[in-house]
Write a structure and sequence with these properties.
The chain is α/β, with parallel strands linked by helices. It has two domains: 41 residues; 294 residues, Glycosidases (TIM Barrel, Alpha-Beta Barrel), CATH 3.20.20. Helices cover 45% and strands 16% of the residues. An eight-stranded parallel β-barrel has the order 1-2-3-4-5-6-9-10, surrounded by four helices. The chain has a two-stranded antiparallel sheet with strand order 7-8. The chain is globular, with a radius of gyration of 24 Å.
């Protein structure tokens, strides 16, 4: 009798338990599917980071590359590093010709710009210091940095092309770049200066997408930009593929959403992780970590995060492949991106 009662209980509750598990699995699937549909249906603003210095390092005419980005690819959203060593070639003497052209060209084309100011900027060696300032103490350099930031903001703050001011690039990432130790107090001074000069635009600061919580800079910035790298390389492991899913980035963005106005992908990998200088690395080796198929996959990956703005990293390399190496593939995929053809 006791056995029968237990059996009856088991018979009744087991199907209910199974139904509950099935319902939970279906609900999870539905939520994930809905998130994916929302991500895929959401309007994504794609742009590029363009470095005048990197274009020149590749032996290219930076102006030719920039014009091709605007005219050929049809890019209307750009992140532009305004390098200290390019605008102040000697103490107190500014050369704005290059960046005047970039800003005016964007205005004419209806493009929007995230302008990066400060010492630490995109592209190696990360901290771009004029030759004349190398011998200065850190204290003196900081005075110089605040001065060039003030001059830059005042020169371009009336331009309709400027959408956002970015202050430094991944300033708390110690493991990469030839830079002094991070100092959150000095970053705060930079932010205060920019806010005092232009109250109309948001300030963005950037973090590593994979190696940071994204929380450290939220007290300072209105926007947080995060890098998104899929394949890297180091001396110990060789090539390393990050195991994260789009939901990893989505959840991190949701966690910080109460304390920041916006999270964007400020740097989506669309060029190789170079082990040696790009000009001496073989194309075969470069294509191991980045090629047209990987480019498309990375764009789809970024879309599935649900973040609605993504800046691609590597436009100078695409142009170099096309013009110097006769390889059109990456440039053509970029056309697909900006034509809305990658789903």
């Amino acid at each position: 009798m006791r056995f029968k009662r237990q059996y009856k209980k088991y018979f009744i509750w087991t199907p209910l338990f199974v139904l509950l598990i099935v319902a939970l699995l279906f609900a999870s699937y539905t939520i994930i599917k809905r998130q994916r549909i929302m991500s895929e249906g959401k309007s994504i603003a794609f742009g590029v980071t363009f470095s005048t210095k990197y274009a020149k390092d590749l032996g290219l005419d930076w102006k030719e590359v920039y014009d091709a980005i605007i005219d050929d690819l049809g890019v209307r959203y750009l992140r532009i590093p305004i390098y200290w060593d390019e605008v102040e070639p000697s103490p107190g003497n500014y050369d704005w010709e290059k960046f005047d052209y970039i800003i005016k060209r964007a205005e004419y084309s209806g493009a929007k710009i995230i302008a990066v100011v400060g010492r630490r900027q995109p592209r190696w060696p990360e901290c771009h210091v004029p030759t004349w300032a190398y011998g200065n103490s850190e204290t003196v350099q900081r005075v110089n940095i605040l001065s060039v930031i003030e001059s830059t903001i005042n020169r371009y703050k009336n331009s309709p092309a400027i959408k956002v001011w970015q202050i430094d690039n991944e300033p708390l990432l110690r493991i990469f770049g030839e830079c002094p130790e991070p100092d959150i107090n000095f970053l705060s001074r930079e932010v205060e200066l920019v806010r005092s000069l232009d109250e109309t635009r948001p300030i963005m600061m950037t973090e590593s997408g994979e190696l940071s919580t994204w929380l450290r800079l939220t007290p300072l910035a209105d926007w947080i930009g995060v890098s998104m790298y899929r394949v890297t390389w180091n001396d110990i492991w060789g090539y390393w593929v990050y195991p994260f899913t789009p939901n990893f980035y989505r959840r991190k963005a949701k966690i910080i959403s109460p304390v920041t106005d916006k999270v964007i992908i400020s740097e989506l990998q669309a060029e190789p992780w170079f082990k040696v200088d790009v000009r001496i690395d073989s194309l075969e080796e470069q294509m191991r970590s980045m090629n047209p198929d990987v480019f498309r996959k990375n764009v789809r990956f970024a879309k599935e995060t649900g973040l609605d703005e993504t800046l691609l990293w590597g436009v100078e390399w695409w142009y170099w492949l096309k013009e110097v190496k006769g390889k059109q593939g990456m440039w053509e995929v970029a056309r697909e991106v900006f034509d809305g053809g990658i789903q």
